[in-house]
Amino acid sequence: MLFAVLFLLIGFVILIKGADLLIDGASSLAKKLSISEIAIGLTIVAFGTSAPELIVNVFASLGGHHEITFGNILGSNIFNILMVLGITGIISTIVVQRNTILKEIPFLLVATLLVFGLSLWNSDLSFFDGIILLAFLIIFFIYVIGFLKAKPLLGSDIKERSYLVTFIMMILGITGLFFGGKFVVDNAVIIARHFVVSEKFIGLTIVALGTSLPELVTSVIAITKGRNDLAIGNVIGSNLFNILLVLGVSSLIAPIHYNMALNIDFIFLSVITIMLFTSMFVGKKHRLTKVEAILFVFLYLLYLVFLFIRK
Prior knowledge:
This protein is mostly helical and about 300 residues long. It is about 80% helix and about 5% strand. The protein has one domain: Up-down Bundle (A middle domain of Talin 1), CATH 1.20.1420.
């Protein structure tokens, strides 16, 4: 048991360091190509911070741990909206672009409801469902391509490295994510069985919190440097990658059985996504204020209490 906890912690450290290397390398590449900041947040950085969820879910799917597969994504997306944006918003008011409010957040809501509907349809996500999710991700990419050059990163404080160093960092990052993900899944299952708690609970809490740490660190650093687009784009893009790419790829590997007990978590995720959308129009438009950010953190703490009671 002690070794399982130790290896779980080691897995998280490797995951975070791997994501850090991948993000730095990808950001350097993006700067060299003069890609806009919001596009980086929605794509490159979002993919980098979602990579832990992807790797964890691939191993969970291969091992048949369906509740970890679903729980990890639901838990991560709830954490991203309430805690990542909440903590980031407490540090500094998050100002959001109009496009993000009118297009990207609604697209995230539609993607969430799509996965919820497909999961309810046959009580699982099938190979065909995975294709549908990846098709929606392609549609999102086509949309993002439209403003890749909207606001070049010239003058930003992202460190630009040579192409060789950039690619080495990205490869090392992916390698770290691979081994870190395996450590997390294997040892989370051992711990769950030891304490006789469901894999659903482990997925929604320990694994979800661990794999969402890259999003939290990235958005906090971004907001302290005044890069609002990167902070909000990272969260929205990461949640989209989690819903469409991670669950899509996982269901291609093997059908993912859906536990109906997760309905309330899906509904809660949909509600807070709507809250994020509407909060931008209440009071000062196009921004998440400190009061709203505090409310988000409070809601997450209530959600954790609910999880402990339900486990």
